[in-house]
Specification:
The mean pLDDT is about 90. The chain has a seven-stranded mixed beta sheet with strand order 3-2-1-4-5-7-6, sandwiched between helices. By secondary structure, the protein is of the alpha/beta class. The longest helix has 26 residues, at about 185-210. It contains seven helices and seven strands; from the N terminus they run E-E-H-E-H-E-H-H-E-E-E-H-H-H. It has one domain (about 1-210): Rossmann fold (3-Layer(aba) Sandwich). The protein has helices at about 30-40, 50-60, 75-85, 95-105, 155-160, 175-180, 185-210; strands spanning about 1-5, 20-30, 45-50, 65, 110-115, 125-130, 130-135.
Length: about 210
């Protein structure tokens, strides 16, 4: 069984097509959003808490870690809104790079950190797929994703795109913001299978070495 950590899980856009002999632990700080995740993935273990802190204390308990730290302070949309005086300028949340460097140097399993394409040149090179960047310690093939136009799509259009319905849930806050943060499920599957294939190849190589 592959032990998987899905950090900053949101409503699980990246998780939707994962399958196989896996045990998923999802960490989400917002209890209302975690409730949506639980409804869609009842077999996963769900922890309501700080994913950044959870990673530091539990990283060595998993074979594969997916982390999606908060992205607003990195996003191009918010940056241009700042320029139009719609938001106050904000420091980029550097926990994104803290996690990349931590996983790269301390973690022995397979990992990926995901975020939106930022308004600046990324401090560490990454694989770009659609609106998102992926930092990882395994190869992710190029992939052209048909992303939803988050600047023009309605909430209902984004729900259909991600195959969810949030209309009956209370206390979520802005549904459009939650949906914009979702990773396309086909992209999530591509990254997930790339990680698992790498794990399997390494296991086979290790077994051949032993015998």
């Amino acid at each position: 069984m592959i032990r998987v950590a899905n950090l900053y899980a949101g409503i699980g856009g990246n998780r939707r097509l994962w399958h196989g002999d896996i045990k998923v632990t999802a960490v989400e700080k917002n209890e209302a959003i975690a409730h949506v995740y639980r409804d869609y993935f009842p077999g996963d273990k769900i922890i309501i808490g700080d994913a950044h802190d959870f990673l530091l204390k539990n990283y060595d308990q998993f074979d594969f870690i997916w982390s999606s730290p908060p992205c607003p302070t990195h996003s191009r949309a918010r940056f241009w809104a700042n320029r139009k005086d719609r938001y106050q300028p904000a420091y980029p949340d550097i926990r994104l790079y803290e996690e990349i460097l931590f996983l790269k140097h301390y973690y022995k399993g397979k990992w990926v950190v995901e975020n939106v394409v930022p308004y600046y040149e990324p401090l560490i090179p990454a694989r770009k797929i659609g609106r998102h960047l992926f930092w990882s310690n395994f190869y992710i093939p190029e992939y052209k994703v048909k992303d939803v136009d988050v600047n023009r799509a309605t909430i209902r259009e984004m729900e259909r795109y991600h195959k969810v319905d949030l209309s009956s849930y209370k206390g979520l806050g802005r549904r459009d913001r939650i949906l914009r943060n979702c990773v396309n499920s086909q992209t999530g599957l591509l990254v997930f299978e790339s990680a698992l294939n790498t794990l399997k190849k390494e296991l086979i190589t290790e077994q051949k070495t032993l015998f």
